[in-house]
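Task: sequence design from structure.
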C-alpha cells in the first residue's frame, strides 16, 4: 500500500473529477474523514463514517469495524438508487487520532463550518451521517449506530394553515434529527461473515457474476475514490470512474443480511427520502408537485418498524438486555412516527382528512413512546388542530400544547402556537370549557412569557 497522498492533492483531484459529473447523480465513493467528499449534483448525500472499535482486541476488531461500515455503505447505496439524486460515501480513518472520524466534526466539514471537505454539501441540500461503534461487554461483541440528518442552512420546520372561516397558522419542528439506536449483538458467525463478504464485495467483475473473475477495487490510503452507478441488476451495481475502467460490484448478499443485523439501515433510507421530499417541494412552483420520495420514505419507515420488532421479539439475543433495547428503541420508533406524520401532512395542499387522521394517530403514538419531547407534543397539537373547524376537541389540542410548554417552557414556537390557538378559539366563539374572559387571560399570560423569552438561534 502506498503512503498517504497529500491532502491538497486529494481535494484538487476530487474537485476536478466532480466538476464534470452530471447534475443529477447516483454515486458512491470512499474518502478520508479529514477530507470528506460530497457530490454537488446529489439532492441528498449520505456519509457512512468508518465504524470504530473500543476494547481489548484492537487489531482484529478494528478491521472488522471498518469492513462492516464499508459494507453498510454499499448496501445503503444500492437501496438509495430508487431516489432521484444521491451520493453515498464511506469516510475512513488515516491515523490513530480518536477524533479524526468524529461524526460531528465530519458533518461540520461537509457543511462548511470547518475546512477540509473536497466538496461541501450545497445550501438547501440534504446530509445524512451514519456512524457506529463496536464494543465488548461480558465477552460479547455489540454494534451500536447513530444517525443524523438535516438540510444545510434549512431548519426542518413546516407550517400548517388550519382551514375554515377563521383560518390560522401553526408551525412545528421535526423532532429527533439525531438518533442513537439500540446495541445489537454480533455473533461469531456474524463476525466471520463480515470478513468473508467484505472480500467478495471488494472486487470489480467484468460481468454481474462471481464466476466471471475480477480484480480488487483499487483503494489507496488517503486517496478519495468516487464512482457513478450506471446500471443495477439485483444485488449487483455496474460502476464507472475516471480512476478505473469500471465493472460490477456485488453490493449485497444473502450470506450477510445487514438489514436484519442493523435494521436502522431502513431509517437511513427513510431520512434520505424525507429530505428529498422536502427539497423537491420547496423548489417546486406548484403546490402539488409529483414527488415519489415521500412514499418511498414511508415504505422504509414501515420496514424499519417491522425489522425493529423482529429484532426485539424473535432475535432478542442480539440486544444487550431486552429491556434496555426496548427503551433504546423508543426514540427511533417515535422519530419514525413523527417523520411519517409530517410526510402525510405534506401529501396535499390543503391536507386531506384521511391523511390528517393518520398523522394524528402517529403523533399520539409517538408521544406515548417519548412523553418528554416538546417538539412531539407540538407536532401532535398541529395535527389535532386541523380538526377544530370540524368539531375537534379544543381542550385536547390546548392540553397538547400545554404539555409541550411544560417540557420546554421557553420554546418560542410552542408559545407562538399557543397564543395563535387561544386567539382562534376566542374569535370563533369560546368552546366549552373555555370562556371569553378565560381565553383573554390566557392570551395575556402567553404574551408575557413570550416577551420575557429571548429569541434563540434557529435549529439545524
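Answer:
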Amino acid at each position: 500500500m502506498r503512503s498517504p497522498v497529500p491532502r491538497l492533492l486529494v481535494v484538487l483531484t476530487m474537485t476536478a473529477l466532480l466538476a464534470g459529473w452530471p447534475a443529477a447523480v447516483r454515486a458512491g465513493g470512499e474518502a478520508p474523514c479529514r477530507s470528506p467528499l460530497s457530490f454537488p449534483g446529489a439532492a441528498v448525500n449520505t456519509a457512512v463514517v468508518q465504524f470504530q472499535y473500543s476494547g481489548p482486541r484492537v487489531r482484529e476488531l478494528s478491521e472488522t469495524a471498518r469492513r462492516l461500515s464499508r459494507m453498510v455503505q454499499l448496501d445503503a447505496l444500492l437501496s438509495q438508487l430508487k431516489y432521484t439524486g444521491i451520493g453515498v460515501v464511506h469516510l475512513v480513518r488515516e491515523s490513530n487520532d480518536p477524533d479524526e472520524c468524529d461524526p460531528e466534526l465530519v458533518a461540520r466539514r461537509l457543511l462548511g463550518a470547518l475546512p477540509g471537505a473536497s466538496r461541501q454539501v450545497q445550501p438547501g441540500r440534504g446530509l445524512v451521517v451514519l456512524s457506529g461503534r463496536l464494543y465488548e461487554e461480558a465477552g460479547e461483541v455489540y454494534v451500536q449506530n447513530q444517525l443524523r440528518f438535516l438540510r444545510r442552512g434549512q431548519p426542518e420546520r413546516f407550517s400548517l394553515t388550519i382551514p375554515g372561516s377563521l383560518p390560522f397558522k401553526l408551525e412545528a419542528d421535526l423532532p429527533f434529527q439525531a438518533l442513537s439506536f439500540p446495541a445489537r449483538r454480533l455473533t461469531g458467525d456474524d463476525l466471520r461473515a463480515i470478513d468473508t463478504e467484505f472480500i467478495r464485495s471488494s472486487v470489480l467483475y467484468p460481468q454481474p457474476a462471481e464466476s466471471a473473475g475480477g480484480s480488487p477495487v483499487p483503494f489507496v490510503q488517503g486517496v478519495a475514490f468516487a464512482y457513478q452507478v450506471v446500471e443495477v441488476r439485483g444485488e449487483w451495481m455496474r460502476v464507472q470512474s475516471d480512476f478505473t475502467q469500471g465493472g460490477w460490484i456485488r453490493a449485497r448478499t444473502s450470506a450477510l443480511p445487514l438489514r436484519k443485523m442493523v435494521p436502522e439501515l431502513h431509517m437511513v433510507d427513510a431520512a434520505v427520502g424525507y429530505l428529498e421530499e422536502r427539497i423537491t417541494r420547496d423548489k417546486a412552483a406548484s403546490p402539488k408537485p409529483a414527488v415519489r420520495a415521500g412514499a418511498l420514505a414511508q415504505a422504509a419507515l414501515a420496514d424499519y418498524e417491522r425489522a425493529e420488532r423482529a429484532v426485539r421479539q424473535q432475535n432478542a439475543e442480539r440486544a444487550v438486555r431486552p429491556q434496555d433495547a426496548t427503551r433504546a428503541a423508543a426514540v427511533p420508533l417515535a422519530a419514525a412516527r413523527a417523520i411519517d406524520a409530517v410526510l402525510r401532512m405534506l401529501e396535499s395542499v390543503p391536507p386531506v382528512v384521511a391523511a390528517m387522521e393518520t398523522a394524528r394517530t402517529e403523533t399520539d403514538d409517538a408521544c406515548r413512546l417519548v412523553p418528554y419531547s416538546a417538539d412531539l407534543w407540538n407536532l401532535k397539537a398541529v395535527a389535532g388542530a386541523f380538526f377544530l373547524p370540524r368539531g375537534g376537541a379544543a381542550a385536547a389540542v390546548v392540553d397538547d400544547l400545554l404539555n409541550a410548554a411544560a417540557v420546554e417552557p421557553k420554546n418560542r414556537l410552542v408559545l407562538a402556537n399557543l397564543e395563535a390557538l387561544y386567539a382562534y378559539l376566542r374569535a370563533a366563539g369560546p368552546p366549552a370549557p373555555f370562556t371569553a374572559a378565560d381565553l383573554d387571560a390566557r392570551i395575556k399570560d402567553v404574551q408575557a412569557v413570550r416577551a420575557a423569552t429571548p429569541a434563540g438561534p434557529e435549529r439545524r
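DSSP finds 13 helices and 15 strands in the chain.
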